[in-house]
Every structure is written in C-alpha cells, then in structure tokens.
Design goal:
alpha+beta; Udp-n-acetylmuramoylalanyl-d-glutamate--2,6- Diaminopimelate Ligase, Chain: A, domain 1; WH_DNA-bd_sf; Arc Repressor Mutant, subunit A; 434 residues; 27% strand; 35% helix; 4 domains; 16 helices; 23 strands; CBS-domain
Length: 434
C-alpha cells in the first residue's frame, strides 16, 4: 500500500504543467497534515517536478532531463536576477532557447527576437509588446515597469514579463554564468544516474529471519541486503558477518545493523565512493525524502562510473581545471606553475584552496606512476613559509616517502627563486579497480 508521501508525489506529478501548488491546498485536498505535505513538496522540488519562486510561489514544472540541463526555465531566470514577475506567470515553467540583448533600435532588434527566446531590454514598451507577440518572454532591466496593456498581453499569451533592478549587461552576465554552471553540472554523475532501481533490488522485510537471508544469498550471490518496513522505509542492513552464529529462526531485526548509512538520488557519485571506501562497505541503499528505499548502488558500479567520467570530454571548465592547466612537469618528478590572478586571495597572495588543488594534482600524478588505479587524498598538512605573490614562478619538488598496497605518502617542497616558500605532507588511499 502506498504511503501518504508517495500519494502526494504522484498527485503532484499528475498536475498540469504551470499549476500553482501550496502546502495548505495539498493538505486539504489529500487530507494529510501540512507537515507531511511540506516534506513531499520539498522532495518533489529536489526531484525536479516543482520550482519555488520568491513572491510567486511553488509551481509544477516539466522535469528536466540530463540532455537539456543547460537550458533555463523562465522561473529559474526570476531567481537568478532576483526579479519580480509583472505578468504571464502561467509561462514560468517554459524553457528559454536563447536570449537577446535589446541594445539597438526596434527594427534592428526584430531580426533577432524569436519564439522561445528572452528579450533583455530596458524601459521600451514597444519592444516588450513586439517580443510577446513573437513568442518571446521579456526581462526589463533597471527596475522599470511596463504598461498595463503589455501585462495583460503577457497573461494572454502565457509568457512571463519580468522586472529586475540590475542593468542589462549585468543580467546577461548572470544568465550566461548560470548556463555555464549547468554545463559543468551536466558532467557530474549523481547516484540517481547509476542506481539499481527498487524493482531490481534484493531486500528483506523486518519480519524476515536468518533463514530468509540464507535463501536470498543462494539466489542472488550477494551478502548484504537492506531491511525495510511495511512502508518501504529502510530500517537496517544485514550482512554475512551479522548472521554468523545465529540460528535460522532468529529474527533479522535482532541481528541487523540499525540506522545504516544511506544516500539520495542527488548525492554525487564521488561522495558516495568516499563513504564506501571510508566505511569499507560494498553497497549503499538509496532513499527518497521519506527514507523509503528506491534502489541501491554497488561499489563496483560507483568505480566504473568514476572511471568513465574521467574519460569523457568536459563541456565546461571548473576552477580546478583552470588551475591545473597551468601546472607543467618541467623535469622528471619536478613541476612548475605561475601564480595567476585566479589563484590569489583578496590580498594578492596565493590562496590556500589553490595551493591544495595544485598539491593534490601533483600527488595524483606521481603516485599514478607507482601504482595503477584511482586514489583519494585522505590527509594533507600544508605550511606557508612565506606569502606567495601574484606572478611568482613556483617550483614544486615532490618526494615519495612510502607506497604500500593501500596508501601512498608524499612530501612536497615549494620554491620561489631557489628559496623555500612552502611545504606539505599528503597521504593518499588507493582504490582497487574492479
């Protein structure tokens, strides 16, 4: 039987795109508490079925797929520019294909305005009206409003007209950055991308006994199973170690590990991998906002996903990419980089975060020559002996202290004009590839 949480989620999924949702309305129509309704709406927002906009409310939107994550909805534009919706709220869920800056005469502007677009323009009523009639939404900059007739037109054609206090070019930069951020996020693999769904997951009920674990083990060959209650909520994990020396009729509830580690669909694969390595476990239950089991991930699938991600061409450059691109190996085992403006703090000296990124990259490169496989930096001790200034050329001399089957220890010294400016000690843990 479906839980109240599941019923609310299904109700939300079947609402018309653009429908406005409220906690009180959901609670009243489905006869649930407002707390239950609130939690389910938040879960629906995390899953991408609804979006909450300040001064507008929560609306049902079309769930985005990974293929169009770089596209923005008009609702997201409102959030980005801290805007106010003047009209056309019914079209906030729609996705914009491109945006045009209206810094030209209307006749010239007409060549670029098209359906599904967004016109970014100042206090120009005729341009607002033309864009809406052409199927494009409007973003008015400088805090200006528009005529009531234009607002009514926006409501009629279901295309939003938004006002923001920012200037035109600041707004364009903000939207550009948001799209670029999504290009980077597109390449980040989440648990939801690789999980084994509930329908294919092996699990045990709270009423099960040790004998049921043995039967399941013979059937699947696995040794670790989540334990769920009647509402499909995860209550524990039972492994081969847990059942040793217990009789066949012993209840699973007595031998299982209670309150196990779980992850959600939005957890990154890198984070899940770190938990699995740190805790020494082979699989993790995946739960929704109501702690209900929706699938599992295995250590083997996680490592395959991480290795595949490393082989994919990146669409967007992260700050780490920009920093490590400037790192060069000048001799065997000796590296060099020049401190650029992106690497500095507000005082113009090399930042701690940048230094950590560079040292981590160096450690990964030299240890990968000693032992094949992936690795995770487990500990880093960093000492700045002198401030490292902008445009300084830094020489890095790493030295491997010890390499075992599971760990590598590296000592690194940094020099500027042959004077020591920093020192670091790193410990990395190796991950065996399956």
């Amino acid at each position: 039987m479906a839980t109240k949480h599941e019923l609310i989620l299904e109700h939300i999924k079947h609402l018309e795109i653009g429908h406005k949702i409220s906690v009180r309305q959901i609670a009243k129509s489905l006869q649930v508490s407002e707390g239950t309704a609130y939690r389910a709406i938040k879960d629906a927002e995390n899953q991408g079925y609804v979006s909450t906009i300040e001064r507008v409310g929560t609306i049902r939107i079309e769930k985005k797929h990974r293929g169009n994550i770089e596209k923005l909805t008009y609702a997201e534009v409102v959030k980005i520019v801290e805007g106010q919706v003047l009209g056309g709220r019914g079209g906030l869920y729609k996705t914009l294909n491109r945006f045009v800056i209206g810094a030209m005469k209307l006749e010239a502007m007409k060549r670029y305005i098209e359906a599904g677009g967004l016109l970014i323009v100042g206090n120009r009523d005729q341009a607002h009206e033309y864009a809406l009639k052409s199927g494009a939404a409007v973003l008015i900059t400088g805090g200006f409003e528009t005529r009531d007739e234009v607002k009514e037109l926006a409501n009629t054609v279901d295309l939003p007209i938004i006002s923001t206090s920012y200037d035109t070019f600041t707004v364009a930069a903000m939207i550009n950055r948001a799209i670029y951020d999504r290009l980077i996020k597109k390449e980040i693999i989440h648990v939801g991308d690789i999980l084994i769904p509930f329908s294919k997951t092996s699990y045990l009920q709270m009423s099960a006994k040790v004998l049921d674990w043995q039967t399941m083990n013979k059937k699947t060959g696995h040794s670790r199973y989540p334990v769920i209650d009647e509402q499909q909520r995860v209550q524990g994990i039972v492994t081969a170690k847990d059942i040793v020396r217990y009789k066949n009729q012993t209840p699973i509830e007595k031998v299982m590990t209670k309150t196990p580690i779980t992850v959600t669909e939005t957890t990154t694969v890198a984070s899940a991998a770190h938990r699995m390595i740190w805790e020494g476990i082979e699989c993790l239950p995946v739960v929704n906002g109501a702690s209900q089991l929706i699938g599992i991930i295995t250590r083997q699938d996680v490592l395959k996903a991480m290795q595949m991600a490393q082989r994919q061409p990146q669409v967007g450059e992260t700050i780490d990419d920009i920093i490590t691109d400037q790192l060069t190996e000048v001799d065997e085992g000796r590296f060099q980089f020049t401190v650029s403006p992106q690497m500095t703090n507000h005082l113009g000296a090399l930042s701690y975060g940048t230094m950590t990124t560079i040292l981590t990259t160096v450690t990964e490169q030299i240890l990968s020559k000693q032992k094949k496989g992936d690795l995770v930096i487990e500990n880093i001790s960093l000492y700045f002996l002198k401030p490292i200034q902008l445009e300084s050329v830094i020489d890095i001399s790493p030295k491997i202290l010890e390499v075992t089957r599971r760990y590598g220890k590296v000592d690194i010294e940094l020099y500027h004009e042959e004077q020591a400016v920093g020192k670091a000690f790193l410990i990395a843990q190796f991950i065996d590839r399956y």
